Each structure stands twice: as structure tokens, then as C-alpha cells.
Amino acid sequence: MKLRVLGCSGGIGGNLRTTSFLLDHDVLIDAGTGVGELSLTELAMIDHVFVTHSHLDHITCIPFMLDSAGFMRDRPLTVYASEETLDILKQHIFNWKIWPDFSEIPNARQPYLRYQSMELGETVVLNGRKITSVPANHVVPAVGYHLDSGKASLVFSGDTTTNDALWKVVNKIENLRYLIIETAFSNREKDLAVLSKHLCTSMLAGELLKYKRDAEVFITHLKPGEMELIMQEIEDCVRGLSPKMLLNNQEFEL
């Protein structure tokens, strides 16, 4: 099982692309602007999209994927998310006002899009790959995901602020190899981090005190213009773990 980082920034500009990960060739974890780097053939091979939450930087390429590659497929693209997140997508994106409802195109019996709700903690198994939703704490209903090949695991926090429930899950994963966790803001923007339910560097340091595993830690969702500052602050205040900044096109073997 291989996970490739298509996008991992909190914004765009230059080579920055928003959150999206390609699992093998057929599964996306979130579908931010990084998905736009894939070829049309690669887009047509994606069968499943697991969405952490409904914010635009995590879903922006789903409508374009369907419009661009839907005709090349012989089955619907399945979007997995919480019931609350799916409701937001139906009401505010695929509503014929912002974008066509691809759950009815080309017709309701053979659509380009289908929805599959997931309960928190539910596991979907795809060809032996286990994908489980884990708790997140954000301004809209949100989750992270635990990816498990059997040999090794990776946890992606999604967008979250302080979150004791996440650590109760993470600390029980014996085969955990990688943890990807967001830190959107530097300490000078702590008030904004609290308001928007993201982490700043001092909050990350507090969260990682709850972390009982020794898996590698990678930082994602850094805001453009603050990446170097955020990583310097993390180096100064996080002890013992040496978190690294997540990079476009980075790959993880599980």
C-alpha cells in the first residue's frame, strides 16, 4: 500500500496545493487542488474518495473530476464521509446551482457519483486495505483517517484543534508507522487558530505530549507565507519527536 501526497498546504500559490492524498491508484483521501496534477487517465482510475470534511480546500476537485473523467468510467465514483458532510455536499455543491448533481447524471440509475456515509470509527475494507474514520475537532463536522495495510498504519488527523479523542485512538495502534497532523498557524496567530479550530505550534506541542507512540510525525496544512516560521517554532517547542514538514509528492509505504 502506497500513499502519495498530491497536496498538503493550507493554501495555494506557486507550487502550493491543498490537501489531497492518493492511495495506490484508486483511492483519494480528500480532494483538494493537488488532484489537479493528475492526468485524465489517472483521474478516471479513482474509484473512491474519503472526505474529512466539507471545506473547499478539501473537496474542490471532486466536481471537476466528475465533469472531466466521469464519461470514461463504467461505475460511479463513491464519496465516503459522515452523513453531515454528505448532506453539505448535496445541499451546497451538487445542487444544480453551484454544480450539476452528478448523482443524477447521466441518469439516476447509472450516475457518475454515489454517496456512502460512514459512522465515526467505521472501517471500510478495499482489497485488504482498511480505512477507518477517527475523531477530529473542527468548526464543521470532521474526521481524520487511519489507513492500515496489516503490516503498518498511517493516521491523518484531518483539520482539527485540541482533540483528546484522537489520541485515545492513535495510542492504541500498535503498527503505527506515520502520523500526519495539521498545524495551520504560527503562535502569533493563536487567537485565529482557536477561533477556526486549527492548531498553532504551541497547541501542537501540547497535543504531542499526549502522543505515546514512536511513529514518525509529519506536519501538514501550514498556511502560505508562514511555513518556515511554523517549522522553526515547532523545532523550538516540540521535544523528542523531530516532526518534519510534509512535502508534495512525498510517498509513504505501508
Beta-strand percent range: 25-35%
- Please provide the count of β strands: 14
What is the overall number of helices?
A: 8
Oligomer classification = single chain
Helix content: 10-25%
CATH topology: Metallo-beta-lactamase, Chain A
Cα(first) to Cα(last) distance is 5 Å
Order of helices and strands: EEEHEHHEHEEEEEHEHHEHEE
Into how many domains do the coordinates divide?
Answer: 1
Tell me the radius of gyration.
Answer: 18 Å
* CATH architecture annotation: 4-Layer Sandwich
CATH class: Alpha Beta
Alpha-beta classification: alpha/beta
Largest sheet composition: 7 strands, mixed
Mean pLDDT: 97
The CATH superfamily label reads: Ribonuclease Z/Hydroxyacylglutathione hydrolase-like
Low-confidence stretches: none
**Overall 3D form:** globular
Strand order of the largest sheet: 6-5-4-3-2-1-14
Give a brief description.
The chain is an alpha/beta fold and 254 residues long.
Q: Which helices and strands occur, and which strands form pairs?
A:
Blueprint: E1 2-7, E2 20-23, E3 27-31, H1 40-44, E4 48-50, H2 56-59, H3 61-69, E5 77-81, H4 83-92, E6 113-117, E7 123-126, E8 129-135, E9 143-148, E10 153-156, H5 164-170, E11 176-182, H6 190-196, H7 201-208, E12 216-220, H8 227-237, E13 244-245, E14 251-253
Parallel strand pairs: 3-4, 4-5, 5-6, 10-11, 11-12, 12-13
Antiparallel strand pairs: 1-2, 1-14, 2-3, 7-8, 8-9, 9-10
Helix pairs in contact: 7-8
How would you sum up this structure, described in words?
The protein has helices at residues 40-44, 56-59, 61-69, 83-92, 164-170, 190-196, 201-208, 227-237; strands at residues 2-7, 20-23, 27-31, 48-50, 77-81, 113-117, 123-126, 129-135, 143-148, 153-156, 176-182, 216-220, 244-245, 251-253. The chain has 254 residues and is of the alpha/beta class. The protein has one domain: Metallo-beta-lactamase, Chain A (4-Layer Sandwich). The protein has a 7-stranded mixed sheet with strand order 6-5-4-3-2-1-14. A 7-stranded mixed sheet has the order 7-8-9-10-11-12-13, covered by helices on one side. The relative contact order is 0.14.
